[in-house]
Amino acid sequence: MTPELPGALARLAPLLEHYGYAAVFLLVLLDNCLVPVPGQTLLIAAAVYAGAGSLNLAAVVAVAVLGAVVGDTLGYVIGRTGGRAFIHRYGRYVLLPPDRFASVEAFFTRNGGKVVLFSRFIDGLRQTSGALAGITGMRWHRFAAYNVAGAVLWVGVWAGLGYSTGTHIGAVYTEVIRYQFYVLALLVAGVAVLVTRRVLRRRRAGRDGPADAPKTAPKTD
Q1: CB 167 within 8 A of CB 150
Q2: CB 194 within 8 A of CB 106
């Protein structure tokens, strides 16, 4: 029996009814590769369907993990091959001018593994973390390991919640999304602090540099 999905999930029911696992794979892939589509929401809806017996949970998890890994990998390849040139040319139009991008790059260099592992739980980062990993030159084997682990974690959490809570997932999802915005706000604030510190440090160095430069002794005849 096909369950009646709550809220926003109901709009995705026709995709599951007509395309099933293929829809899960494609939307999850795009949602992990720079395209803001409701891949996460469809994953949850598919898990609810699995809980009602309309889909197979193991198959939902398998195609979702595969889609997430492939999507993030495509983002990584795009970032690695052309992302840096794009940022240098158009970064100011996407709120990443050179000074701000330098701070983001420094943060990602130190914490890239953790970002790739947990970014799928935050809208915006889920779509861009693979590309950021490529742009910042994260080593492929390290990215691949965190990519797979993050995909399994993300799919496991949402598929488990959707499967176990069924049509009550709407209330759970609303609460999780609310806290997700708080986490995103904290991340944005952290990056802003890093950018501010970097700019102030550069200005201070610019002011102190000439004063600290060694003075040459005057020439005598």
Answers
A1: no
A2: yes
Domain residue limits, the chain: 7-206
| Coil, strand or helix at 191 | helix
CA distance 196 to 178: 28
CB atoms within 10 A of CB 199: 13
Contact call for residues 44 and 7 (beta carbons, < 8 A): no
Task: Indicate the pTM of the whole model.
Answer: 0.76
Amino acid in position 67: G
Sign of CA dihedral 201, 188, 185, 93: positive
Give the side-chain half-sphere CA count within 13 A for 143. 25
Please give the DSSP secondary-structure letter assigned to residue 166: G
Judged on CB neighbours under 10 Å (0-12, 13-18, 19+), 169 is buried
Cα gap 195→95, rounded to integer Å: 12
Over residues 88-127, the pLDDT tens digits come to 888 777 777 777 788 888 888 889 999 999 999 988 899 9
Residue 174 scores a pLDDT above 70: no
Gap between the Cα atoms of 102 and 179, Å rounded: 28
Q: What does DSSP assign to residue 82?
A: I
Fill in the amino acid letter for 195.
Answer: V
Question: Taking Cα atoms as reference points, which of 110, 119, 20, 12 lies closest to residue 68?
Answer: 119
Q: How confident is the model at residue 182 (pLDDT cuts 50, 70, 90)?
A: low
φ, ψ for residue 169, nearest 5 deg: -60, -25
